[in-house]
Amino acid sequence: MWSWSRFKASHHFINKRCSLQNTSRCLSTVYALSSGQGKCGVALVRVTGDKAREVFTRMTVPPTLPEPRMAVLRRIVHPATRDGLDRGIVLWFPAPNSFTGEDSCELHIHGGSAVISAVLGALSSLPGYYPAQPGDFTKRAFYNGKLDLTEVEGLGDLIHAETEAQRKQALQQMEGALGQLYTGWRQVLLHCRANIEAFIDFSEDENIQEGVVEDVEVKVRKIIKEMEHHLSDNRRGERLRSGLQLAILGRPNVGKSSFLNALVQRPAAIVSPVPGTTRDVIETTIDMGGYPIILSDTAGLRDTDDIVETEGIKRALARSRHADVAVIILEATEIVSLLEKGLFNWDRFIKSYFAELGIGENEDKTLEYEYSSSWISNEKYVILLNKVDLIVSEDEKRLLKSALEDPCFLVSMKTEEGIENALLKLKHICASLCESGTAENPTLTATRHRTHISACLKSLKLIINNYNENNYHTHLEKGEKSNSPKIDELSANNSNISETAYHFPERETPNINIHSSTQAFEEFDGNLLRSEETLLIAAHHLQKATNHLGYVTGHITTEDILDHIFSAFCIGK
Ligand SMILES: Nc1nc2c(ncn2[C@@H]2O[C@H](COP(=O)(O)OP(=O)(O)OP(=O)(O)O)[C@@H](O)[C@H]2O)c(=O)[nH]1
Ligand SMILES: [Mg+2]
């Protein structure tokens, strides 16, 4: 019999998480220095696990548990020798009201290296105490249901955040904005699937309220729309997380390396009057108005027989293809002579100039080429007309200024004229490329999320659009009679999956081999919810969809994903 209680399993997932892990690791008590390495005023040592209370009973004077979450000053002693180690503030967080969900304590001790190593040494002498591995505290918080996987990733990002915008995005994610969005979708889809399952089982009884399947369709369509909107964010969140790629491009000797040096305020790249000085890509990172930018100075673009320079140009063009933003540098004098000849048109000039450099769009706009020039089609570039200090004639300067059009700026790396305005424009471009989301509409921040949400969306679309009645019947007729796997098994193609979501009751499946037909079903054209015969397939796609959301939030996990995510954490977090 189908039962609704089988659907309400979310909290079971959380409880099961620990048992899926190496149990001894979960049962042990771990400790770590959670503040940074090196001498400091106060250092923080954290302990978590079943035996955490022993810190108070065996290592503090008096040997009693303090009031939960109340800071108290205690003498800290070695548990065996009773030698005094330090005097500091201690805190007790009994389970489940702690970061990890386990009994935990904190020792705020003096930050000298001798004090820290004496306290850590004393902790190691307590039976059942082990030094924590990177991310151990957060891993326990995850297994105990304190954080979902997106919140864990947000916490990791917060620790690694280097700019203001990155910090804001990570905090939003750690506070659960993304997790709530995905969990909300998952809950709705789980209900949809429950309703479809109930309808299949009981449609002939009178118990099923009318319009159940129609209601599922409305909900699925709504989520499809929301997911499409969520995915069409131009990778803003991912860019902000990993940094915007900005390529500095142009002919040799125009001042590309001078621009890089001006931005980073140090001689990061060699500047010389010899054209072709820069050969390799020189990469450095900066914080531009709170946005993380990965700057790439590149080799000057020109025809050459020099094999080293040719390789440099190849690398420069590759960098151009992967750039989110570009700064194209020209010599202002080049434009003056063109202007003096008359008939100057910026649009035409820029197009042909990009083409000459090898970075412009070509005529037939093949897919590869469109990709290669995304910063052009998105208009995410500025053009700097450099060395304006060399134009001495006021008439020429006036002519140049009057002909200037956005996004061109007259600048001089030598006198720094015009650089501020150009940087302002660049900041606007960067902001538009990685504007962070809001708590209500959080941005997607990792490729892992995009992959699963895209796969989820695909499954949902298969329910609404892709079904062709004739195809379906052909498959029913052709279907093998035995070895039809249950729907649950269809999604469990990853052997490491720690659970396979909800377990649905035994049922009579259509007389088809769903495995062999899945591919074909995915090619159907139509609405699976409009025929009772195809509802089972709709349920199958709904399960796939909810599973993908479960992978993102960590309701369904694989060891590989967890290892990857937690490996980025520090010891003590
Ligand atoms: N007068 C003047 N000279 C400049 C200015 N900017 C750069 N230069 C000079 O132009 C020369 C080339 O500058 P780089 O920054 O090395 O030019 P580049 O584009 O990196 O050159 P390659 O690496 O060869 O492609 C150097 O001698 C700079 O000092 C400027 O605004 N005014
Ligand atoms: Mg250079």
Automatic annotation (TrEMBL):
Listed GO CC annotations = mitochondrion
- Which residues span the membrane? none
Where it sits in the cell: the answer is: Mitochondrion
Q: Which InterPro entries match?
A: G_TrmE, GTP-bd, GTP-bd_TrmE_N, GTPase_MnmE, MnmE_dom2, MnmE_helical, P-loop_NTPase, Small_GTP-bd
Keywords, sorted A to Z? GTP-binding, Nucleotide-binding, tRNA processing
The Gene Ontology biological process terms listed for this entry are: tRNA methylation; tRNA wobble uridine modification
GO molecular function term, any single one: GTP binding
Q: Which family does it belong to?
A: Belongs to the TRAFAC class TrmE-Era-EngA-EngB-Septin-like GTPase superfamily. TrmE GTPase family.
Name used for this protein in its record: tRNA modification GTPase gtpbp3, mitochondrial
Gene source species: Halocaridina rubra (Hawaiian red shrimp)
